[in-house]
Amino acid sequence: MFFRMNNIKESRKIGKIISKIEKGEYKDNYRRDYSSHVIGITGPLGVGKSTIVYQLGKLYAEKGKKTGIILNDPASESGGSFLGDRIRMQKLSGYKNVFIRSLSSKDAGGISGITRDAVNLLEKSSFEKIIVESVGAGQSEIEIASLVDTCIVVLMPGMGDEIQMLKSGINEIADIFVVNKSDKKQAQRTLREVEMLVNMKKGDWKIPVVLTSAIKNKGISELMEKIKEHHRYFKDNFKKIRKLKLEKELRILIKNEINKKLNCFFKKNLKNYVDEILTNKKDTSTVAKEVVNDCFTKE
């Protein structure tokens, strides 16, 4: 699914290229020059990520910014909430400076495998703002953090388990936290909990925590200001930040390639290995070592 800009010619050209990328029929060696500001929106399901993307996209469009939006959707989801988000998003199609593309996130980690190429294409096409929304499940937060310049993690009141996750490292990837649905009970409590956790983190950038009610367009202007502040910090510390992001990106891409090779190998050989274990010919540790050797030491 994708929605066209009023500039139909450019929209169709970009849409066709992304379709070719999805089919593996197009590859561009373009490397980012960081003329665009790429903003990532991630967080658990149901926190209002799509509404925040919509509100930010609308504000950028009204400011005359050429804005691209990449939505990574659950491959199997088709419920009312999903459709409602997309209907709301489609309202942006009335702005001639907005391009929206929805990609399937069936790949592991919640970020479509062609998202990076799509972001590169939009930057090459002179988009000033590129917003990438992740599904918000599993490793998607880590993946999106390596891809974007400014990573926003969205939470909402009453998410005790998710708040505890911040202690185990998720706060390492957030440049800005948003506590959305501020009209709910415990909003102020959640805000204080997140602020307390981010205050424990050392670093030059003090992570802001913004309280919003995206559905009512409350707090979005403040969020946009924090995004602007972080972008300045990103540009002032570009070499250091870029090095860290490249390390994360390389780890992710290598793991993805390893997983592809392992999955292909399993399709051909897994049954035989299981049979050998069941008949007590080999144990699981021996088999695991053999699989690694077979996958990575043989042509």
Describe this structure as you would to a colleague.
- This protein has an eight-stranded mixed beta sheet, sandwiched between helices.
- It is globular.
- Helices cover 51% and strands 13% of the residues.
- The chain has two domains: 2-236, P-loop containing nucleotide triphosphate hydrolases (Rossmann fold), CATH 3.40.50.300; 251-296, no CATH class.
- The protein contains ten helices and eight strands.
- Helix 9 (238-278) packs across helix 10.
- It has 299 residues and is an alpha/beta fold.
- Residues 76-81 have low confidence and may be disordered.
- Helix 3 links the parallel strand 3 and strand 4.
- It has helices at 8-23, 49-62, 80-90, 115-124, 140-147, 160-167, 187-199, 220-236, 238-278, 284-296; strands at 2-3, 37-42, 67-73, 98-104, 129-133, 150-155, 176-179, 209-211.
From the structure above, extract its key features:
299 residues; alpha/beta; Rossmann fold; 8-stranded mixed β-sheet; 10 helices; 51% helix; 13% strand
Find the structural class using helix and strand composition: alpha/beta
| Main sheet: strand order | 1-4-3-5-2-6-7-8
Supply the number of helical segments.
10
Question: How are helices and strands ordered from N to C?
Answer: EHEHEHEHEHEHEHEHHH
Biggest beta-sheet profile? 8 strands, mixed
End-to-end separation: 39 Å
Number of structural units classed as domains: 2
- What is the strand tally? 8
Mean residue pLDDT: 82
The low-confidence parts are 76-81
Shape descriptor? globular
Summarize the structure.
The protein is an alpha/beta fold and 299 residues long. It is 51% helix and 13% strand.
